Amino acid sequence: MTEKIKGIAASNGIAIAKAYKLVQPQLDIEKIAIQNSEQEINRLNTAIQTSSEELEHIKEQARTELGEDKAAIFAAHLLVLRDPELIQPVQDKIKQEQVNAEYALHETASQFIQMFEQMDNEYMKERAADIRDVTKRVVGHLLGVEIPNPSLLTEEVIIVTDDLTPSDTAQLNRKYVKGFTTDIGGRTSHSAIMARSMEIPAVVGTKTVTADIQTGDLLIVDGLDGFVFINPSDEIIHTYHQKLSDYNEKKAIWAALKDQKTVSGDGHVVELAANIGTPEDVRGVLDNGGEGVGLYRTEFLYMGRDQLPTEEEQYTAYKKVLESMGGKPVVVRTLDIGGDKELPYLHLPKEMNPFLGYRAIRLCLEEQDIFRTQLRALLRASTQGNLKIMFPMIATIEEFIQAKSILLEEKSILQSSGIEVSDQIEIGMMVEIPSSAILADQFAKEVDFFSIGTNDLIQYTLAADRMNERVSYLYQPYHPAILRLINMVIEAAHREGKWVGMCGEMAGDQMAIPILLGLGLDEFSMSASSILPARSLIKNLSKAKLESLKGEILSKSTAEEVLEVVKKLINP
Ligand code: PEP
Ligand code: MG
């Protein structure tokens, strides 16, 4: 019988394919006394051989699909596997102590891991992570437990997992991954945001998909309405083929707006830009009629690898985005690591509240080498297009002033060594912490522009974790408290003659767009796939009418009351 699971619609579209469960198995390693150590060493060697063939395959696949830097991770794993300094002591242990191979390997590897992790040397710490990964693979083979590996996919699948980290998402193979569904997470988790920029349909926060679904089950992921169907009947499959073709028809109608400006019914012009995570996403921006990039989340350049990207690597990525956007504005956000975006190779201590912790600009102002390297790469690339730079998670004026002065310092160092830097770069900030929204009048004197990050602003204002589906009822974009903050920011900026954008997911939300237009937002930055539906909606709205409703909307006391006003306006 078909089972239907409700979740959160996280990325538009419909996918129909077999399930691929990405759940890390529990590896229980017992100590067992053995009789024949020769035989046990043979078992070990066979498992090493199989793991090594597997890694060769993954490495080649990574090289062609994901690039040289990702392939290097697996090359490092292969080196560990072939290192006699690790393997010989395992064999000795089997012989001397007459114990099973998985136990001998696990014990020996743990000693190396502990030793490397304690060293005050980044390179050795990374080797510890490599040994952990490789050991898991070999132990998996020894125990006959399959360790899922999405890089080995050879057919179209829908990924089913408890959670997908942003770096897992970055490594998904677009050719074979047709959709995904998770137990946890919300619409503004970064894996959901990335799925939207990769245009992969997704349903998150289902609570139970990993328990309910087996690898090989046929699935429908309905990213439009937030449903997952397990082994659907022919009738449901037929309905969904119809729904998919209706959706594609709508997309064809929107496509006619691709090269048009974004103008409301009464002639008010706004800019519709896109959020991107990698240079590859630019194609989607242009295909969907984006008028610029309103948020380039540069942290993805730092993920899915085992060391910081060099200045040259960053320069190449920024240059590529600026060039491909051909003079259209590109707002690059400096590194926003932390929260759900971890960089294991920085070895930062675990925190009780990572979303309130040592992250983003806080980390950059402290670890200035990392920050300055990124700024230099950006400044050098600035002559290749229309670059704007903004800083994430600004809570105080001092942070903005310090970040800006570091940027200007790097600029003058570059210029005095004869390197050309654009003098048109606007410098702005994200408004995603309530303190900066409340003091927007003062920040507005310092910045060239604001970009409102509602994904965080909502979670911090209502104290509701954006990743936690249990408090998702409190995560309310239309809450009057949020709308008042947005209004304060827009009014403060306009008084100083500065422009305001929004790059949180709310900017692409069909119910929020009329409100934001009425509040006077200048730039809306969203997932590329939301741009054309937004342009189509704005064409049919009257800015003057919405502006006249501003007082009424801001005086409401609940999100529901606000929505009633908007609904009446859209469907009078
Ligand atoms: C935001 O907080 O709204 C934002 C755009 O940044 P991120 O989603 O990357 O935290
Ligand atoms: Mg944010």
TrEMBL record:
Residue ranges constituting the PEP-utilising enzyme mobile domain according to the UniProt record: 154-226
Annotated EC: 2.7.3.9
Cited PANTHER family: PHOSPHOENOLPYRUVATE-PROTEIN PHOSPHOTRANSFERASE (PTHR46244:SF3)
Cofactor dependence: Mg(2+)
Coiled-coil regions listed: 27-61
Location in the cell: Cytoplasm
Location, primary (coarse class): cytoplasm
InterPro entries: PEP-util_enz_mobile_dom, PEP-utilizing_PTS_enzyme, PEP_util_AS, PEP_util_C, PEP_util_CS, Phosphohistidine_dom_sf, PTS_EI, PTS_EI-like
Keywords: Coiled coil, Cytoplasm, Kinase, Magnesium, Metal-binding, Phosphotransferase system, Sugar transport, Transferase, Transport
Any one Gene Ontology molecular-function term assigned to this protein's record: phosphoenolpyruvate-protein phosphotransferase activity
Family recorded in the similarity comment: Belongs to the PEP-utilizing enzyme family.
Class of the enzyme per the UniProt entry, highest EC level: transferase
UniProt domain Phosphotransferase system enzyme I N-terminal: residue ranges: 6-127
Protein's recorded name: Phosphoenolpyruvate-protein phosphotransferase
Organism in which the protein naturally occurs: Bacillus salitolerans
Annotated ranges, domain PEP-utilising enzyme C-terminal: 253-541
